[in-house]
Write a structure and sequence with these properties.
2 copies of one chain form a homodimer. By secondary structure, the first copy, chain A, is an alpha/beta fold. Chain A has 4 domains: 186 residues, Rossmann fold (3-Layer(aba) Sandwich), CATH 3.40.50.980; 103 residues, Rossmann fold, CATH 3.40.50.980; 63 residues, Luciferase, Domain 3 (Luciferase, domain 3, Roll), CATH 2.30.38.10; 103 residues, ANL, C-terminal domain (GMP Synthetase, Chain A, domain 3), CATH 3.30.300. Helix content of chain A is 31%, strand content 26%. Chain A is built from 17 helices and 27 strands. The longest helix of chain A has 17 residues. The termini of chain A are far apart. At the A-B interface, helix 1, helix 7, strand 16 and helix 14 of A face helix 1, helix 7, strand 16 and helix 14 of B.
Amino acid sequence: MKTIYELGLDKNAANHVPLSPMTFLARAAAVHPERVAIVEGSRSQTWRETDQRCRRLASALRARGIGRGDTVAALMPNVSAMVEAHFGVPMSGAVLNALNTRLDAATVAFMLAHGEADVLLVDRELAPVAMAAVDRLEREILVIDVEAEGFDAPAGAALTYEALLAEGDPTFVYEGPEDEWDAICLNYTSGTTGDPKGVVYHHRGAFMNAVSNALEWDMPKHPVYLWTLPLFHCNGWCFAWTVAARAGVNICLRKIDPAAIFAAIRDHRVTHYCGAPIVHSMLIDAAPEHGQGIDHAVQAMVAGAAPPAAMIEAMEGLGFDLTHVYGLTETYGPAAVCEKHEDWTELPVEDRARLNAKQGVRYHLQEAITVLDPATMEPVPADGETVGEVMFRGNITMKGYLKNPSATQAAFAGGWFHTGDLGVLGPDGYVKIKDRSKDIIISGGENISSLEVEDVLHRHPAVSAVAVVAQPDDKWGETPCAFIELRPGAEATPEALTAFCKERLAGFKVPRNFVFGALPRTSTGKVQKYELRDRVGSASAIDE
Amino acid sequence: MKTIYELGLDKNAANHVPLSPMTFLARAAAVHPERVAIVEGSRSQTWRETDQRCRRLASALRARGIGRGDTVAALMPNVSAMVEAHFGVPMSGAVLNALNTRLDAATVAFMLAHGEADVLLVDRELAPVAMAAVDRLEREILVIDVEAEGFDAPAGAALTYEALLAEGDPTFVYEGPEDEWDAICLNYTSGTTGDPKGVVYHHRGAFMNAVSNALEWDMPKHPVYLWTLPLFHCNGWCFAWTVAARAGVNICLRKIDPAAIFAAIRDHRVTHYCGAPIVHSMLIDAAPEHGQGIDHAVQAMVAGAAPPAAMIEAMEGLGFDLTHVYGLTETYGPAAVCEKHEDWTELPVEDRARLNAKQGVRYHLQEAITVLDPATMEPVPADGETVGEVMFRGNITMKGYLKNPSATQAAFAGGWFHTGDLGVLGPDGYVKIKDRSKDIIISGGENISSLEVEDVLHRHPAVSAVAVVAQPDDKWGETPCAFIELRPGAEATPEALTAFCKERLAGFKVPRNFVFGALPRTSTGKVQKYELRDRVGSASAIDE
């Protein structure tokens, strides 16, 4: 039986509008039309201009038959057209498929085929890979040439981005998604073996994460946001939409270069940026040469690995405050934050680093993160010791994997999203990752967490980056092998590092082998452990 | 035909959770369990305790048969139990009907009957009115006696609030709303004639407005929020949920008393509070005596009328920054804000007051506010002159009026919520109210905006508050009559005020009559113009 609250009280156009981050652009353009929205080199454009250009893009795509449920791919560095694509494409009703700029042609071709893209927006710098990928496709695709200074036009592009915009209408009225569950973006996970999976985002989740970003960071109106995080990576963790919601400034950067980053921070008084640990490390190393003259507070987010004490300390020295966040492509990038407590501020940096190393708690607008026994789906005790699988639940979680119902069902089994990360739940309710299942090294029947060994080596002053993997061993089954990147000018011997580890780790956890040199990384700065496992002939390399 | 993005990508428990502000309490209790949540006099309780007490309330209500679609009424000042009711009642599935504490027994009885309340939570101070209302009901209602120091227990209450909580389970697991469209609150509008209308709020809108409040104010984590705005008034504009979302502190105040307000601001370092203009005026007047020793910044929101220049200036002198917001009960309280621009800060206070007087632009998470011709539903030109009706659209808009489909349909006609306020749209897109239809005075065939005349009189240094209404006139039809409240110790004559107006207004707009004395006000501080119209025998008094 219906209650009195369900009679004559239905949704209508006045009291129910599907959630979509497109609304943030409309508001920024209406309320702050003359404020700068995007800066790229010496060029800048206002929110009014940005709104008009996005409407042009949307209407031009519509005129070419693109609409709801179609896919528009984009292969671009962090340029202004890439920011615009995050609005113009969804405004047309289509789904934006931002592609990793460091992929090879075969992988790009796989994604274009699997995602059924009808259009590909390509920055000229990336045209060689893009056109090679297009050549492999067995069907037509409309290639849009996004001009870039110093690069040639690709053969095979239908028209330039500016010509496409010229076809469009700057006053185009878009209707927004029919349903907030409609897809807004498609992001392929950078799986290291097997076909990449296409993670589908909905408008509702993009709206939620964009707002949550502002809440996690206490981000006030009109931030100046520097694009160090690739826009193709979980849609720049949704920050294009957050910056619009706050009517801030997008500072675009074609290349991740410490001198350019410091110059941008200084010249534009950047207030916020995000990045993998490698980005922050690069800045720390370049600070003596390039970091002078920055006298304002900067908020930095770090994801992908916990920031070690030395990093936190060095960042503080620069006046940068680090926030540690955690998530996956499937959760629109980070959807958990190591939320700081006031009483942490008085602690020594080592203690703060230990506390900050936790993956933490759910984003404000995510419903839950926890650690469950994946077999029983029961929560582990909140003892900081019992290992289970880290899981998410809530509105900042993907629709599922495109054309892959079995993977989707497995990911959502039991009503939670399974991250594949192993972790514990502290008495404070904060989640801490102990390891990914495949990062556990089993030596003489004992489990060794490669993260634990890496954490110790990170503390050595000569070590810039480290990755520990399992190396096959006739006697022990596996032993830890440490790959080490040294700080510029620093030196360390295997003997010294062994001694350093022995003071801090149980003997069986100390690496038996140290290898020095640059670590192989994904385009997002994540160390490619599978490659290191390959090098040492590890068995676990094969199932990644 | 379904697109590829609609196949095998359905909602499930992992990726879709109904929006509800209950989640903010859960997060505050999980992440900041030891932080203070509520202070009332010398007593305070943490977020963990608050969460447990709310779970107790919810489960005790459940055990007594209260659940989804039932109504729980509450008649309480701004005490901690009232904050708890904003969580505990919806957690049980029931709808919270917060009642205006200054109503008479007959009106309370009407609301209890119309809203079909099964339970009534009554603060002892308000028990006489409540029990008289209960006596008029022709059915049983469970009366819960909320104890208050210095007041006697009412005869007829079933049990105390603490006894009810003792029946409950502090670990009760609530399932949240089945649907985010479910009702969360019922608020009767204080109509001045005719039966009050029951405005029904949904969980989705309460969630949206709670978050929007934080965004409008750039409210950081852990604010200290002072309850000067009644919690019964649009659920304290949803700030109980906002404070939970930000894990802040609720400072409860039983009475609106300037000395107590200043003491709370000073002692608890209050960062935020809201109120009608009368609250801010009271503070300004009491500042010399009570406002000493406050050395931190305070954010104040004002709704109900634009703050005049003198008020803005006086508040700045106290270190208080005023934000002007606008809305109605139907839009969860304010859903528009006069968002300030950076370049306003350099202007003289008169200019800032003029700019700040606008009702402004939509809240971040409301979809639209605009001015339409109600006949054609076409937007008026954005010329700052053409008058139309102010209308809202979006997710911060009520479900409708309870058991009143015709009023609901009229309010939502054409897909917009009709506010009944007349306004203009400026070239900057900011809405400015010119008048409510009934506030237009028609003199010799010319329209006079009573607001315009009031604005002028507000600028006179002796005037504390003013209300201008139409007085019947044999010659002109109507003429403006001004009711004036003078500042303490200030003096003014009708002649002086007439001269003051003549310098600033067209002759026909100058009031022909000045009446000095206290203005009649509603419980929320709104001037009761209908009573003033009654006094002068105005025709428009009858149709209010």
